[in-house]
Write a structure and sequence with these properties.
This protein is an alpha+beta fold and 404 residues long. It has a domain of 245 residues: Beta-galactosidase, Chain A, domain 5 (Distorted Sandwich), CATH 2.70.98. The protein has 9 helices and 21 strands. The longest helix has 21 residues.
Length: 404
Amino acid sequence: MQYGYFDDAAKEYVITRPDTPQSWSNYLGSTEYGAIITNNAGGYGFYKSGARGRFLRLRFNNIPLDQPGRYFYLRDAESGDYWSASWQPVGKPLDQYQSTCRHGTAYTVINSRYAGIATEATYFVPLGQTFEYWRLKITNESERPRQISAFSFCEFTNQWDTFQDQVNLQYSLFIVRGECSDGLLRIAIHDNLTPTDEATLQSDMSSRAWMALVGAPVVGYDTSQSAFLGPYRSYHNPLAVEQGQCRNSNAYGDNACGTLQTYLTLQPGESRELLVMMGIGEARVVGQQMVAKFGSLARAEAELQKLKETWHAKLGSLVVETPDEELNHTINVWGAVQLPYHLCLVPRRQPGVQRRARRPGLSRLGAGHFGRRRGHPGGSPGPPGVDADRTAGQRRGDSGDTAV
């Protein structure tokens, strides 16, 4: 079965249906601020080390495959129906829901259509920065006005050391705090032990995160995962989305999440754009500074173009044309794209991973993926430069990939 194709002109791999046999992921960011995102917006984020600096949570060997992640939920006020801007986590029937993912050079774009609403979600990390953009464009393709609620969602770790976050719950559950401070979500670990002088808060990147919404007013928020999801629920049916209203919850002795809610009224044919900014550092200092400097749709677009131009400039110095189309894809784009990622993100301490990754163009993420070496059932190759997500190294007891 065919799940996508190479678009070498755009330097993107296009995934045309979301129910891929494994989740296919893309690298965003740098060795300082790394982000992994799959074709269904699953994935995590880390600061310098995927093992000791992971600030966005991903559960290893989980079912479903790649949850949680960087999500937008949408809810129609008239019908009460809700869905996600990526096929997962809500997972609407594919005879009603259309989704296309474009994995590019350090950015990912996910387009979807459902119930007369089209969305385009773009994710990337600006060059040299320690925050990321989630840009969402919503278009009313129906013939009537629509009242839409939009919710962001990600799940923060309670301890940036991945092993401690996943295992040592009697400790990690009691050291995180989440709140809304001056319009930004503020997530802090060991908040009571950190000096509050501005110099410290300016330089402290080790245990704090923030989230902001640009382009529409914030009408609700949640920083408590249990308040947002509700009891005995999961990412596919969060209670706050189902009921259409966040709880304005503050996490304290709880799992922390990042949810900002807004209301939109869309006339037939009308489009609106929202911008979520999420990064590390003290929200009251670093977060406010980043929003003041980078917090506009125009600036986000400029940063995206700069990112593309920088990466595309690295390509093109060698172009081959052979009878083998897959070889052309690998040499001209995907092999060249993957090389700097592997030099930066594959850990030195696991040479066996690098040996398994020798097949040209097929990337392995960090500790190596549990997926087959071929990304499609029946032996057809998976897309070079796009990972079949999740780490087999976790079964060997490793806690994650580490930036070099």
